[in-house]
Specification:
Elements: E1 6-11, H1 15-25, E2 31-37, H2 43-50, E3 54-58, H3 66-74, E4 81-86, H4 91-99, E5 104-107, H5 112-123, H6 131-139, H7 147-155, H8 160-170, H9 175-182, H10 186-200, H11 205-215
Parallel strand pairs: 1-2, 1-3, 3-4, 4-5
Helix pairs in contact: 3-4, 7-11, 8-10, 8-11, 9-10
Length: 218
């Protein structure tokens, strides 16, 4: 858990959006705005120079879009978390960004207090996508032929108990709720999730939820 101020960077090609976010977040206790950039092609230099904990990432940018930039960031060692900023008319792009390793998304008209709460959540390893919104997003994605079978094949690498945890994550349950439903401690749930991430080569529990959806485990 991060105890120092959370170092936040903003990547958006709209100067007014960047200025608005900086104005909104500047001075908020527990958050420090350390950098901003106008395009995804600047992400690598931004991370190298400022070491943010969280990046607020736009999707549509002229040179390198937020999906590609997210993938670049998340391939780094000890990468920052990424919160995608979007609107509902880019649902397919949002899901692609989640698959690239983003921890969730925010709408650009989200209330300031909720943006602050979301930054704290992802900085501490918790996704910020509600089960209802996750389902809406995923249901808009065209299902590729054989996608469900491919997802089910990947899950064969897991134990039966780990597969149950994947299904619970896919239903949007918290660690405490998973523990209650499956009769295990929160520490055991966390250990199972770490094992699942390691075995399947995933970055976070949002990707576990997507895999659960693809495999039909919800």
């Amino acid at each position: 858990m991060i105890t120092k101020p959370i170092r936040v960077a903003i990547v958006d090609d709209d100067a007014l959006v960047r200025a608005g976010l900086i104005m909104m977040l500047d001075g908020v206790e527990g958050i420090a705005i350390v950098a901003d950039a106008a395009d995804g092609d600047q992400v690598t230099r931004l991370v190298d120079a400022h070491s943010p904990n969280v990046i607020l990432m736009d999707i549509r940018m002229p040179k390198v879009d937020g999906i590609a930039a997210t993938a670049i960031v998340r391939r780094r060692r000890n990468p920052p978390e990424v919160l995608v900023l979007t609107t509902f008319d880019t649902d397919d792009h949002v899901v692609r960004a989640l698959r690239a390793g983003a921890s969730g998304f925010l709408l650009k008209d989200t209330a300031p207090a909720k943006i602050v709460a979301a930054i704290h959540a992802v900085a501490n390893g918790d996704p910020v996508i509600s089960p209802q919104v996750m389902r809406r997003l995923m249901d808009r994605v065209a299902v590729e032929t054989g996608q469900q079978q491919q997802a089910q094949d990947r899950l064969r690498a897991l134990s039966d108990r780990e597969t149950e945890v994947v299904g619970a994550v896919g239903r949007g349950l918290s660690n405490a709720e998973i523990g209650s439903a499956l009769f295990m401690s929160v520490a055991t749930v966390k250990a199972h999730i770490s094992s699942i991430l390691n075995k399947l080569g995933l970055d976070n529990r949002t990707q576990i939820a997507l895999l659960a959806h693809d495999a039909g485990l919800e």
